[in-house]
Design brief:
- The protein has 276 residues and is an alpha/beta fold.
- The protein has a single domain, classed as Ribokinase (UDP-N-acetylmuramoyl-L-alanine:D-glutamate ligase).
- Helix content is 27%, strand content 26%.
- It contains 7 helices and 13 strands.
- The strands form 2 sheets. A 9-stranded mixed sheet has the order 5-4-1-8-9-10-11-12-13, sandwiched between helices. The chain has a 4-stranded mixed sheet with strand order 3-2-6-7.
- It starts with a strand and ends in a 13-residue tail after the last helix.
């Protein structure tokens, strides 16, 4: 069965530097390796969905500079069908330090560039989608995403979530990231399911009816190399699984295994779980 999936969200052009450790204030450290890649929540999720589903639509916005063009080319080369509204600005960038423990420390340069509902983009594709992962956009973009059978979102898009007033099927957030915490009653419409990732402790879930549970972490297929993109890889795989009709336990297991595989690669795309 072909599963139709899409991502609505943001892309960043990321420069990575591998260092022994993050420098202390005033200290100089030397990078052992540097490389660049298209990233950001939308980009990472789109590549993961392309791997699992065979094809994915990424609805986004890109800056008009060289970094924006390189991001489009890099994602297209990884099997992503990129639909990008042009923006007369510099592409959002990020600088990421990767330390010997595999942790990533990110400095973001520029405002998030997201698609708007008024942009001339193929929003009609979302009505035919089995699953959409939403990382950023205006309220109209989120309402368009709600036309999909399954809608998964991150709290990083909280302004659109609050303003649009739509019901999410799943809200996925990191339990260790203060920027992704949602206060009780913060959302005008509660999601059907809230999923909290807890890194090496697995994670927990809770339905709007109050049912709750947890899952164990997936075994790592190799040593940890790089944590960049593991969270959005998890959310993308969960979107694919639920759009495919998997039960929750099976969907969480697939998502955890894809995230664990991501941890063992250089950058967000070097390692992957074989397509199920």
């Amino acid at each position: 069965m072909t599963v139709r999936v899409a991502v609505v969200g943001h892309v960043e052009w990321v420069e990575f530097a591998r260092v022994e450790r993050v420098p202390r204030p005033g200290e100089i450290v030397h990078a052992r390796e540097t490389f660049e890649e298209a990233g950001g929540g939308g980009g990472v999720a789109a590549v993961q969905l392309a791997r699992l589903a065979g094809a994915v639509d990424l609805i986004t916005a890109l800056g008009a500079d060289g970094a924006g063009r390189r991001a489009r080319e890099a994602l297209s080369a990884r099997g992503v069908c990129v639909h990008a509204a042009p923006r007369e600005c510099r592409q959002r960038r990020a600088f990421t330090l990767l330390d010997d423990a595999g942790e990533r420390t990110i400095t973001v340069l520029g405002e998030r560039i997201v698609p708007h509902g008024e942009d001339a983009l193929p929003w009609e594709r979302l009505r035919r989608a089995d699953g959409v992962y939403f990382t950023g956009g205006d309220p109209a973009a989120l309402r368009a995403a709600r036309e999909a059978a399954v809608l998964v979102a991150t709290p990083r898009a909280r302004e659109a979530i609050v303003a649009a007033g739509v019901k999410l099927d799943v809200l996925v957030h990191s339990g260790s990231d203060a920027g992704e915490r949602i206060a009780p009653g913060e959302l005008p419409v509660a999601p059907r399911l809230s999923v909290t990732t807890l890194g090496e402790r697995g994670g927990r879930w809770r339905t709007e009816e109050g049912d709750e549970g947890a899952w164990a972490p997936a075994p790592l297929p190799g040593p940890v190399a790089d944590a960049y993109g593991a969270g959005d890889t998890f959310a993308a795989a969960l979107t694919f699984a639920l759009a495919s009709g998997y039960d929750l336990a099976t969907a969480l297991d697939l998502a955890a295994r894809c995230s664990a595989a991501c941890l063992t690669g250089r950058g967000p795309y070097d390692a992957e779980l074989p397509v199920p």
